[in-house]
Amino acid sequence: MKTLYFLGGLPRSGSTLLGSLLNQHPDIYVSPTSPLGDVVTDIEKSFNRVDEQFTFDRKQYLIMSISQFLLTSTITLQNQQS
User: Cβ neighbours of residue 47 under 8 Å, at least 6 residues apart?
Assistant: First the structure.
């Protein structure tokens, strides 16, 4: 079983350069930059547009949304490597 690590960083913090350096190792694969940050921001913006009449646990919904995104991304990554 492979171990997955996530590389993240703020804009202009050097995460792309670090990914490029790590990608030069034959046993390491670094995927292109993930849109996860944009997805989380979009989810948060959509929460702000929801009418107050709807009641739900925002934190739980956000965790479920991010989990679904990561699961989908992991499956896609595994399919690409197969």
Answer: 58, 61, 62
